[in-house]
Amino acid sequence: MSEWSDGIIEVTTEAELREILPPPLERTANKARAELHEMDRRWLAESPFVLIATSAADGTCDVSPKGDPAGFTLVLDDTRIAIPERPGNRRADGFHNVLSNPHVGLIYLIPGRGDTLRINGRARLVREAPFFDDMIVQGNRPKLALVVDIDEIFHHCQKAFMRSKLWAPETWTPDAMPSRAVLAKTFERPDESLAEIESYYDPANYSAGLYG
User: Fold this and answer.
1) Cβ atoms of residues 75 and 81 within 8 Å
2) How far apart are CA 27 and CA 88, in angstroms?
3) C-alpha–C-alpha distance, residues 70 and 51, integer Å
4) Among 1, 6, 13, 200, whose Cα sits 20 to 30 Å from the Cα of 66?
5) 3-state secondary structure of 49
6) Residue 51: C-alpha distances to residues 30, 47, 120 (Å)
């Protein structure tokens, strides 16, 4: 335990942590599996969105969202899946991390569902494979895919989504923050006019570049 000068008390040992958070129930602690079940395959077939957490060898972390039509994650066999890369900002933060540390954590969402599917494993970057032909969307054949060898897989309960009311439309406040165009001008494109940036992010224009 460590107490900071401002009265903040830090947890510094596992024993301390378990004084605050008792050990999980046995069924929770032992629910992870090493191979895909048919129910997992069905979940992946229905999910259009995944969050991918990575960490480089030096500890640099990243969480990257990936989205495509439901079923975009390709099941290669009982212990391997593949996630296609689509046109984006090309920062490739997560991919850089994987090159020095292959361990990844994935959370798959299905819109409207509070529970999630979690996969932890080791990833590799693949630049070409026959299964790329099965990942074509709107004529876009990926130039890169993340292949994940599964270490553990399990389903996670819905308490976080229930607390946040994430899927409850009556709680949505998309206009509470300035538009994406305003944020881009503030942080990324200060030399461009707001009108130009708004035109770029106009849904009709922006959607044209999703796969090209």
Assistant:
1) yes
2) 40
3) 14
4) 200
5) strand
6) 23, 11, 12
Q: What are phi and psi of 132, to 5 degrees?
A: -60, -30
Helix (H) or strand (E) segment spanning residue 147: strand 145-156
Which phi and psi (to 5°) does residue 146 adopt? -100, 115
Measure the CA angle with vertex 35, ends 161 and 38; round to 5°: 70
Show Cβ contacts of residue 49 under 8 Å, excluding neighbours closer than 6 positions. 65, 66, 67, 108, 109, 111
Token pair, residue 208, equals: 């044209």
- Per-position pLDDT tens, the chain of length 212: 677 778 899 999 999 999 999 999 999 999 999 999 999 999 999 999 999 999 999 999 999 999 999 999 999 999 999 999 999 999 999 999 999 999 999 999 999 999 999 999 999 999 999 999 999 999 999 999 999 999 999 999 999 999 999 999 999 999 999 999 999 999 999 999 999 999 999 999 999 999 98
Cβ atoms of 73 and 44 closer than 8 Å: yes
Burial class (CB in 10 A: 0-12, 13-18, 19+), 59: exposed
Q: Which amino acid is at 90?
A: R
CA-to-CA dists, residue 158 to 108, 110, 111, 163, angstroms: 13, 12, 12, 9
pTM attached to this predicted model: 0.94
Are 62 and 53 a contacting pair, CB within 8 Å? yes
Please say whether the beta carbons of 117 and 104 come within 8 A.
no
